[in-house]
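This entry is listed below:
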Amino acid sequence: MVEQVKTKRQEVKMLNRKQLEITGVSNVESFDNEEFLLNTDCGFLAIRGQNLHIKNLSLEQGLIAIEGMINSLTYLDANSQGKSKGFLGKLFK
């Protein structure tokens, strides 16, 4: 019998830097109007911008929709632990 390995999949859709939809979200670690930190199937994702707010959130389905002016999307990999540790350290001080 061959077991099928379920590959992790994530979709990121952005419209005019003002609307963002992301699938594969397992948790919202922190958020404010300038920064969101999401735990996703592909790792931690930091979203930075201005006047950010949640339009829709369903952790059961792994979906989030964010509105506002989006400036950057950054994945915080385990390979860059120095950066992510410092970043996470700043968030959770």
